Amino acid sequence: MLQTPPTRFAYLGPEGTFAEAALSTAVGPDQGVRQPAASVPAALAAVRTGEADAALVPLENSVEGSVPATMDGLADGDPLLITREVFLSVSFVLAVRPGTPAADVRSVVSHPHALAQTARTVATWLPGVPALPASSTAAAARAVAEGEHDAAVCAPIAAERYGLVPLAEDVADHPGAVTRFVLVTPPGALPAPTGNDKTSLVAVVGDRTGALLDLLSEFAVRGISLTRIESRPTRERLGVYSFSLDCEGHVADARVGEALAALHRVCDDVRFLGSYARADGRTNRPVPDVAADAAFTDAHAWLTRLRTGQV
Ligand SMILES: O=C(O)C(=O)Cc1ccccc1
């Protein structure tokens, strides 16, 4: 009997990242094969080349905002599909090799988002010590274990994994920070609508007055709320931007499908990034009767009658 091979999950590695913890939350601790990737672009590339079936990457944080490598990695290159979102509370330790006093620390290293969320607290422990970027919090812990740097801001589990000890625990300038991760796959079947879904896309608007308002109007007139919108440079030339946004609803919902079709007409480019179950613990706003699927079905049936002489 043929056995289905286990799903291969790439994640922002090495072992001990918050992305790995988010993957365990998303698919269960023992599901599939885990493939740590050296960076977000490497994790996405593994899916695009077929080396992995899915990738778990950080998308945005409640303190620092979006993760540019993920936003740009999804907006450019071969299309990928977000099939899940996962929210994780992040709590950091300031970790050193055993026996290192604070006075001997010459450098502190971590993922830029972790450094940004802890800068003030770290400075109280290590005044004047330069903070350096690493590809992930666990890569930072590993670099400290290998003697490349002296202190890392990382997850407690990463400190343990790389044999470090905490100089300080619960290190946070803004307690309660939450990071949103996404599971991305190659294009294929969409997750079925759950009734509480989100849709993500990237739209490039034309260089003309009112172009962004036109984009927003297509959502507003169909009773669709946005949950995130931000601009990113297209990297073509200064002044040309794309808008990365999430809205409530599933592309299978008539109002969302019609809004996307309208964007296809009014925007220079639209990239659909997926429809998936909303997981931030909130419920989509009630859909007005005039924007419900039944209202669209009824309106289309009416139009068909007009066009076929059944007035
Ligand atoms: O580096 C990690 O562990 C990540 O998963 C990225 C990250 C960094 C800082 C906060 C949350 C996620």
TrEMBL record:
<dbReference type="InterPro" id="IPR045865">
    <property type="entry name" value="ACT-like_dom_sf"/>
</dbReference>
<dbReference type="Pfam" id="PF01842">
    <property type="entry name" value="ACT"/>
</dbReference>
<keyword id="KW-0028">Amino-acid biosynthesis</keyword>
<feature type="domain" description="Prephenate dehydratase">
    <location>
        <begin position="8"/>
        <end position="186"/>
    </location>
</feature>
<dbReference type="InterPro" id="IPR001086">
    <property type="entry name" value="Preph_deHydtase"/>
</dbReference>
<keyword id="KW-0057">Aromatic amino acid biosynthesis</keyword>
<protein>
    <recommendedName>
        <fullName>Prephenate dehydratase</fullName>
        <ecNumber>4.2.1.51</ecNumber>
    </recommendedName>
</protein>
<feature type="domain" description="ACT">
    <location>
        <begin position="200"/>
        <end position="275"/>
    </location>
</feature>
<keyword id="KW-0584">Phenylalanine biosynthesis</keyword>
<dbReference type="GO" id="GO:0004664">
    <property type="term" value="F:prephenate dehydratase activity"/>
</dbReference>
<dbReference type="GO" id="GO:0009094">
    <property type="term" value="P:L-phenylalanine biosynthetic process"/>
</dbReference>
<dbReference type="InterPro" id="IPR002912">
    <property type="entry name" value="ACT_dom"/>
</dbReference>
<dbReference type="InterPro" id="IPR008242">
    <property type="entry name" value="Chor_mutase/pphenate_deHydtase"/>
</dbReference>
<dbReference type="InterPro" id="IPR018528">
    <property type="entry name" value="Preph_deHydtase_CS"/>
</dbReference>
<feature type="site" description="Essential for prephenate dehydratase activity">
    <location>
        <position position="179"/>
    </location>
</feature>
<keyword id="KW-0456">Lyase</keyword>
<comment type="pathway">
    <text>Amino-acid biosynthesis; L-phenylalanine biosynthesis; phenylpyruvate from prephenate: step 1/1.</text>
</comment>
<dbReference type="Pfam" id="PF00800">
    <property type="entry name" value="PDT"/>
</dbReference>
<dbReference type="GO" id="GO:0005737">
    <property type="term" value="C:cytoplasm"/>
</dbReference>
